[in-house]
Amino acid sequence: MFLPSLARSALEKNLADATIEKNIDDNLEPELEDYKCEVASGSLRIGTVSAPIYNAHEKMKVPDVLFYDNVQHMMVMEDMFKDFLLGEHLLLVGNQ
After folding, report:
1. What is the rounded (10 degree) CA torsion for 65, 31, 49, 84?
2. Which of 36, 55, 74, 82 is the most exposed place for a label (fewest CB within 10 A)?
3. Phi first, then psi: what are they for 82, rounded to 5°?
């Protein structure tokens, strides 16, 4: 859950007061180890998908971003990577 600790604790307390229980099968939850982003031997791997890395001539045009690993983001990145490798068009809107 992506909430600050104070908001999360208030939400959990209200859910408990309303007798609403968290019922998630741990076997259905994907593990972070299954969804990693790794660069090794000139290849990028996101989840189970990999491809060779393009060596840009002008490195200053390649953005350097801060990325936080979490399962949901890695699943989306893996799906986008699959579409990219299939030649599908991707429209990404937002901050770099």
Report:
1. -50
2. 55
3. -60, -45
Q: What confidence tens digit (pLDDT) does each residue in 31-82 have?
A: 656 778 888 888 999 888 999 988 878 777 777 777 777 888 888 889 999 9
Residues ≥6 apart with Cβ < 8 Å to 15: 21, 22
Rounded to a whole number of angstroms, the CA Rg of the chain reads: 18
Q: Give CA–CA dist 46/48, Å, rounded.
A: 6
Domain presence at residue 12: no
In angstroms, rounded to a whole number, what is the distance separating the alpha carbons of residues 43 and 58? 19
**Residue 43 falls within a domain, yes or no?**
yes
Domains contained in the chain, number: 1
Instruction: Find all residues with CB under 8 Å of 82, minimum gap 6, and list them.
Output: 49
Residue with tokens 């600790």: 5
